[in-house]
Amino acid sequence: MTVHGGDGAGTDDVDWDAEAAAFDEEPDHGLRDPRVRAAWAARLRTWLPGRPGDVLDLGCGTGSLSLLAAERGHRVTGVDRSPAMVALARRKLAGRDAVFLVGDATAPPVGEARYDAVLVRHVLWTLPEPDRALRHWRGP
């Protein structure tokens, strides 16, 4: 969830490392409410490929959405600017086919890697130039 805002949305003022420990307490962030978790799982069933694929989760936060994708057999790469969020995501998905990197969602540190799906939950609205980010994520 943490990306550089700069658009007046207030995201630059948030210390996401300080927020990390309590981040999942928000029902929609941690997907701890069974109904919220089930709703997101249903969305991912329709949004992600039916066969296991490579999923890039930009602004992954603590990895809650990454976990749902991994539970469906997908290989997940998560990117977040907050080292504390990334550390929590790594713990949450320990033993699963998932890698988490500290970096900027607008220019993920994944080189030329290609993905079958890109998740950007709670991120797009924070970007100063969302159209540019979308073009970058789509690739050539």
Number of strands: 4
CATH topology: Rossmann fold
Low-confidence residue ranges: 1-10
* Helix-strand category: alpha/beta
Tell me the number of structural domains. Answer: 1
Helix fraction by DSSP (H/I, runs of at least 4): 25-40%
Task: Name the CATH architecture.
Answer: 3-Layer(aba) Sandwich
Helix/strand order, N-terminal first? HHHEHEHEEH
The main β sheet shows up as: 4 strands, parallel
Bin the strand percentage. 5-15%
Q: Number of helical runs?
A: 6
Termini separation (Å)? 25 Å
Radius of gyration: 14 Å
The CATH class turns out to be Alpha Beta
Average pLDDT score: 86
CATH superfamily: Vaccinia Virus protein VP39
Question: What is the strand arrangement across the widest sheet?
Answer: 3-2-1-4
Shape: globular
